[in-house]
Design brief:
This protein is α+β, with helices and mostly antiparallel strands and 317 residues long. The protein is built from eleven helices and eleven strands. A hairpin with a 2-residue loop joins strand 9 and strand 10.
């Protein structure tokens, strides 16, 4: 939009700019400029034409204002829901830039759509439960280290650890998974990419070592065998049978990219190819007696032991 605005300014001044000159001025390729001009002509419906005598573009009719993008109320609703979904950035260094961007977009929609925008805010919302608690100073320090390519050291309390330990990582990526922020980075001491939960990170400091994120790094590849964020080793075929209300609730969502559903009488069988991670076990246990592990046997035995332990808490040994 900034490029097209600058092109528009030259056109309104009658300077007859061509692709080569615009490309040099905007520091992009001539093909990019040509795509911008085609977008202005075809999508924004501006009266653009090329003058072969003056070797440049011009407006064939008066253009008072640069038009805004045409957007439907349905698209505005989608944009609003996207804005509401960004609540996890509240308090971070990204909050103000995001708020400013959405404010500019809403103001550019015109009077009628501004009213619709306000009405949509009263009609649509996004709510999160169990949102992770992350120190904003830690988040900002790690976000900057990711962007700058700087190695960091910090104190970290492992989930099953008794006390904090000093860790070093080359931060590759920050991801919000299940309302919790995680850092994915290479741990030099362990020679592999490790996952760190932000609420358990303290005292982030840069080590002074710079790095470049490997081109082959892929978060999707790292998580492809995981149910959520925990690495569960090699993906296994997991079959679960849900009954009662759970059979309907489970069937209404996408839990994993590999999921497949089959009806089994009054129940629902969910099949996935995932690692046997702690978050998978906790998720299954959360459905209580309405969920049964059909396979693999290893997971069935683990859940059986966990269920007995829960029963002992409430019923006594």
């Amino acid at each position: 939009m900034e490029r097209m605005w600058r092109i528009h300014q030259e056109l309104t001044r009658g300077e007859y700019p061509n692709c080569r000159r615009l490309a040099e001025s905007l520091e992009v390729s001539s093909k990019t400029v040509m795509r911008d001009i085609e977008f202005m002509r075809d999508r924004l419906e501006l009266p653009l034409a090329y003058d072969a005598v003056r070797h440049g573009f011009h407006y064939t009719a008066a253009v008072k204002d640069f038009p805004v993008m045409k957007i439907s109320q349905g698209e505005v609703a989608a944009l609003l829901l996207a804005q509401k979904s960004l609540e996890q950035f509240r308090g971070t260094a990204f909050e103000q830039p995001l708020a400013g961007a959405f404010r500019k977009l809403s103001h550019s929609l015109g009077g009628e759509m501004e009213v619709a925008w306000h009405e949509l805010e009263q009609a649509l919302s996004v709510h999160h439960s169990g949102t992770g608690l992350a120190d904003m100073e830690v988040f900002d320090a790690l976000a900057n280290a990711v962007m700058d390519g700087n190695e960091v050291s910090f104190s970290y309390h492992k989930l099953a650890g008794e006390k904090e330990e000093q860790r070093t990582a080359r931060p590759y990526h920050l991801g919000c998974i299940e309302n919790q922020w995680y850092l994915f980075g290479h741990d030099p001491a362990r020679g592999a990419v490790r996952t760190f939960a932000l609420p358990r990170i303290r005292s982030v400091e840069r080590t002074g070592i710079s790095f470049k994120r490997p081109k082959k790094f892929s978060l999707a590849k790292i998580l492809e065998g995981s149910f959520a964020v925990f690495e569960g080793g090699q993906a296994r075929k997991v079959r679960l049978r849900f009954t009662g209300v759970a059979s309907r609730l489970v069937g209404e969502r996408v839990w994993h990219a590999s999921q497949r559903f089959d009806r089994d009488g009054d129940g629902l069988v969910l099949t996935m190819d995932v690692g046997l991670s702690p978050d998978l076990r906790q998720w299954i246990l959360g459905w209580g007696a309405d969920a049964e592990v059909l396979e693999p046997g290893e997971l069935r035995e683990a859940l059986s032991g966990a269920a007995k332990a829960v029963a002992e808490v409430y019923l006594g040994k």
